[in-house]
Amino acid sequence: MFEDEDTTPLGVLKAAHRKERKELQSKIMNMKHSIEKSDKKRKKEVLAEITKMEEEMKRRHEEELTELRPSLPEPSVEPCVEQYQKQAREPRISRAQRRRDKKAEFNRKQEEAEVQAMNDMENAPGKLESEEIERQLTDRGLTIYNIDPDGDCLYSAIAHQLSLVTSRQFGGADIRQKAAAYMRTHKDDFLPFLIDDDGRTVGEFEFEQYCMQVEKCCTDGGVWGGEPELRATACALERRIEVIQPGGRVLSFGEEYIDERPLVITFHRFAYNLGEHYNSTVPNSVFIVRKPESQ
Predict the structure, then answer these.
(1) Distant-in-sequence contacts of 158-164, Cβ < 8 A, 24+ apart
(2) Could you tell me which residues are beta bridge partners of residue 279?
(3) Is 150 a catalytic residue?
(4) Closest to 9 (Cα-Cα) out of 1, 17, 270
(5) Mean pLDDT over residues 95-115, rounded?
(6) Catalytic residue among 17, 61, 160, 277
């Protein structure tokens, strides 16, 4: 999860472009699923809007890359022989050691994020964002229940919600397995909307690799959850999932499951330095605010 990042201006820009492409694909997936099969006029309008959004993003990305390239320094070229000798002198690191190093780095960054979050608790925009979400929850008679920012927060939040409305206890790993299993058995519903880091639609081999990453916790190389995984989880559980966001926005998944009480979680963009985060909710009468535990 925390692999070495390219911190050069070009690397940062490309990473931002990859993130935007993934977010757009999630949005497109929602737009397509919102169309009634019999509404051909609406389908035509949505497809035209999707094409326009994709073309605008592609054009903007090309312009941003064109503007940036003249300011980039000339790359230094190291002689091939010297580079080879340098690599030969470097000790090889075993795969097990790399996994241990990766896990240690993950834990270090998580601890730093938690400390930073505590230090910045009184500052915007995270505090303002949480206050805005709390106001929306108050109207529903709910309040935030904090989930650890460990990369598995989406699945842990849903597991907590499911434990509240059933007599069973669930963990984030249980939800990950259910989401991955549903995606595998409904491959055609997800495969066209998943893209790799270069913006290309993934093939069947990459899709299976992705499902394996959905299945694993982040400490074991798993990926964070987003809209495709929310949709898969809602269908796997046959439960409507509502995601409360700042600005009064509510994303709903599994809207066909209206007979059961929805699972209500919250989405935070600025809660932690690690990035996007999900929390669970509890009734106001219970009013539990649990501080994330350090690992």
Answers:
(1) 158/233, 158/237, 158/241, 158/263, 158/265, 158/280, 160/280, 161/263, 161/264, 161/265, 161/280, 161/281, 162/237, 162/239, 162/263, 164/282
(2) 266
(3) yes
(4) 17
(5) 78
(6) 277
112 in any annotated domain: no
Annotated catalytic, 277? yes
Residue 265 parent element (H or E): strand 263-272
End-to-end CA distance of the chain: 17
Which is catalytic among the residues 17, 148, 150, 268?
150
The predicted model scores a pTM of: 0.58
End position of a domain, from candidates 56, 75, 94: 75
Q: Kindly report, residue by residue over 204-262, the tens digit of the pLDDT.
A: 899 999 999 999 998 898 888 999 999 999 999 999 999 999 888 899 999 999 878 89
80 is catalytic: no
Q: What are 34-84's pLDDT values in tens digits?
A: 777 777 788 888 888 888 888 888 888 888 888 887 766 665 555 555 665
Q: What whole-number distance in Å separates Cα of residue 163 and Cα of residue 292?
A: 19
The token pair that represents 169 in the structure block = 């206890």
Same-domain status, 156 and 218: yes
Residue 86 forms part of a structural domain: no
Q: Which domain holds residue 66?
A: 1-75
- DSSP for 268-288, written as a single string: EEEEETTEEEEEEEEETTT--
| Whole-number average pLDDT of the chain | 82
Examine the domain organization and report whether 128 and 57 are in the same domain: no
Within a domain: 84? no
Query: Count of domains in the chain?
Result: 2
Tell whether 85 is covered by a domain.
Answer: no
- Which CATH number does the domain housing residue 188 bear? 3.90.70.80
Given 153, 211, 218, 235, the catalytic residue: 153
